[in-house]
Amino acid sequence: MFRDYQRYDFHQVLWFTGVKGDRRYEIDFKEFLIAAGQIVVIYPRQIEKLDITGKTGFLFAIANDVFLAINQKIKSGYLNGYFSNVFIKADTALSEILGKITDLLLLEYEGQNRNLLKETYLQSFLFHISSAFKDESLLENKDTLLFVKLVELVDSHFMENREVSFFAAKLNVSEKKLNQICKKMYGRTTKQLIQERLVLEIKKELRLGFKSLKEIAFELGFSEQAYFSRFFRRHEFVSPREFLSNR
What we know:
By secondary structure, the protein is of the alpha+beta class. The protein has 2 domains: 6-136, Regulatory protein AraC (Jelly Rolls, Sandwich), CATH 2.60.120.280; 141-245, Arc Repressor Mutant, subunit A (Orthogonal Bundle). Helix content is 53%, strand content 15%. It contains 11 helices and 8 strands. The longest helix has 19 residues, at 92-110.
């Protein structure tokens, strides 16, 4: 699964029990250094690349409706993706608990394969890793909550709407207030946040290599391929073709 850039439309939870060799793990073009005992959630449509040589552990592939239904019960900001791709370090006690839950899950999967029990074990697994996350208190800050909602809205609507006014109206705040919060939490304006999300999507499509430049431009709302190329160069300082040649 990890041989080259990949993207999936379901949730994944990776638990690394052993890490040797190349420790780099690339998620949405950000490079992380992984270590044994770490756990991370990969969200739908993220793009990832990992050399699995020398790595041991577990990959849980979870249908989105199952993942979201479980989190409605757990109500975890971590699982919601507020803190996207934060790696949790499982200590000895947590690793032992997760190991027992995984054993039960595998036993059920290889036996009677009852969905109710599998989801129950999975809920327990996700509850324990959520409990190990220490920064939920950040969500008590109103500006943080609003920024989180902005990021979620941008992720859901950037393909069809990129006007700051649209997101300000959705969040019931002024464009000025939204920009102030975005600069405070992200270091850039709301418009820059939206544009960077668009650039990230372009880079993902280019790396996956399933579509032509014309198809990518059209699907992402560019009226002309030339404008699409100029937009990308303005942000990445290379053309889409040059970006591909540097992979």
